[in-house]
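Whiteboard transcription, Tuesday session. T.W. wrote the structure tokens on the left side:
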């Protein structure tokens, strides 16, 4: 068994952004054991990374003796690979004590970031920090499937939020690591008051000791529509944000936490800038900012403003934010729920590179399963790897013909399929047009993200059902919940599942109908 070490000591937001890299290592080396070395205050979050088997915590204020002891300990473990996703003095010291065959440190884009903060050279399509982390794990031989942060929250039978009125929930987090990165407190106070006046919504106010002045807001605030949290722990906040419909925050760690649980984020950026690579990375996230000639003024936004007023925040009004909130709620930014279903071996019988529409045969119970999903309000999206095109077994138009036959059979029986997507590529294909690595072949997320954009689906609210481990891995990459069926190649996949691996399925069932019944039962319990 390979032993892999990932090092990222802090800070909270940066640690969350390493979750895709950790998952990619685990999916690329499924028989490995992945260790994550970090500060103890974020250890609980990392335990919710699907790609991490064991967390090695360090104290927040570490002495040289403690650092030395940790270096000795990790040397004794005997790692095969080590990836430094921090690149500071402590992480470099620890890396020196590892005799791994493969040792990689991620590149920080120091010169590009220096050019942005000193010379105002803005790259409007910069590589994100997640991409930089993924480049590091690719140097270890891993494949970068996941490109967005994902936390694996525990299943629960009751909600963390319980309001008197059933309305959309807006989480408001006015904190940030430095005072200069915080939109003005008086505007946050005014925003919360205006939400209650003008928008039918509940509010969760997330505060730290630095934001306590917001506890004494002027005005009459409805107790049944407001909940206030002060110094809540990160894991509890993750569950709160998961149930929220929108998060309003500064450029802060909570923005990344919201992304990692599938909640759309509207982040106010003042002295910092997305060109630096730290913007929230969720599909439904957005940045609220204004153009000022002095932005970005520093890498982390802690430099004091030299102008008479902080215009990067001054020019963002309460009305601007109310407009953002109204538009996001009206468009249902949180997205719909869906069931993503594999085609061959799950929805229809496996026929080994099926290319004849006349041979389409629904799996037992699959028509009834789709009907049940329709009644329960789930979008039904079919996803299929069709490497037979790249291998030269049949032309691409045959895939369309088979898909249309599938759709017509199910619709004739009153079972509506909302979309069918497929990937015709394979890196070892014979047809040059299709013989390549792509971002749509499962478990890469391309097909899922296309479906989410077309149908306003939130993958974090969705289930993934299939008969192969690539279907299960796709769920982990996109934040969904995975169910393996024993039809098709399901029995073979079941034999290859490692029992203590967090990248396994949530449930193993006999067929698609049993999977849908489980999904509906689970949702009825919350």
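and on the right, the sequence the group agreed on:
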């Amino acid at each position: 068994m390979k032993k892999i070490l990932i090092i990222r000591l802090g800070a909270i937001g940066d640690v969350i952004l390493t979750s895709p890299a950790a998952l990619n290592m685990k999916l690329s080396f499924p028989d490995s054991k992945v260790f994550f070395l970090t500060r103890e205050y974020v250890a609980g979050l990392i335990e919710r990374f699907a790609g991490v088997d064991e967390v090695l915590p360090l104290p927040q204020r570490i002495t040289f003796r403690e650092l030395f002891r940790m270096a000795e300990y990790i040397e004794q473990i005997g790692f095969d690979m080590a990836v430094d996703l921090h690149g500071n003095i402590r992480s470099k010291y620890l890396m020196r004590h590892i005799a791994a065959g493969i040792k990689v440190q991620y590149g920080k884009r120091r010169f590009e970031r220096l050019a942005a903060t000193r010379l105002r050279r803005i790259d409007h399509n910069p590589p994100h920090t997640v991409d930089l982390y993924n480049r590091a794990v690719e140097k270890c031989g891993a494949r970068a499937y996941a490109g967005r942060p994902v936390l694996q929250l525990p299943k629960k039978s009751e909600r963390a939020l319980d309001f008197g009125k059933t309305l959309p929930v807006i989480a408001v987090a006015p904190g940030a690591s430095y005072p200069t990165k915080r939109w003005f407190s008086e505007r946050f106070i005014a925003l919360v008051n205006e939400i209650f006046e003008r928008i039918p919504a509940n509010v969760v106010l997330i505060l730290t000791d630095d934001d306590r002045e917001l506890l004494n807001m002027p005005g009459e605030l409805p107790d049944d529509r407001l909940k206030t949290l002060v110094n809540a722990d990160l894991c509890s906040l993750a569950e709160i944000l998961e149930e929220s419909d929108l998060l309003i925050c500064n450029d802060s760690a909570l923005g990344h936490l919201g992304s990692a649980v599938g909640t759309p984020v509207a982040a106010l950026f003042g002295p910092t800038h997305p060109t630096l690579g730290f913007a929230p990375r969720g599909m439904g996230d957005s940045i609220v900012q204004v153009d000022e000639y002095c932005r970005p003024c520093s890498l982390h936004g802690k430099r004091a403003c030299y102008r008479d007023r902080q215009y990067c925040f001054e020019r963002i009004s309460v009305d601007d934010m109310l407009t953002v909130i109204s538009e996001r709620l009206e468009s249902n930014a949180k997205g719909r729920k869906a069931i993503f279903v594999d085609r061959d071996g799950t929805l229809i019988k496996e026929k080994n590179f099926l290319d004849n529409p006349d041979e389409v045969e629904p799996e037992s119970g699959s028509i009834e399963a789709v009907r049940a999903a329709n009644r329960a309000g789930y979008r039904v999206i079919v996803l299929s790897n069709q490497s037979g095109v790249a291998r030269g077994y049949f032309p691409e138009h045959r895939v369309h013909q088979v898909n249309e036959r599938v759709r017509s059979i199910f619709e004739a029986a009153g079972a509506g399929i909302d979309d069918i997507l497929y990937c015709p590529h394979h890196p070892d294909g014979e047809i040059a047009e299709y013989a390549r690595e792509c971002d749509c072949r499962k478990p890469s997320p391309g097909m899922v993200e296309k479906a989410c954009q077309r149908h306003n689906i939130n993958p974090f609210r969705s289930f993934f059902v299939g008969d192969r481990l690539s279907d299960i891995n796709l769920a982990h990459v996109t934040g969904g919940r995975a169910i393996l069926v024993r039809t098709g190649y399901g029995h073979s996949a079941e034999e290859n599942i490692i029992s203590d691996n967090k990248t396994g399925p949530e449930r193993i069932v006999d067929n698609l109908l049993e999977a849908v019944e489980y999904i509906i039962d689970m949702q009825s319990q919350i």
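Someone added at the bottom: The chain has three domains: 3-138, 169-330, 338-524.
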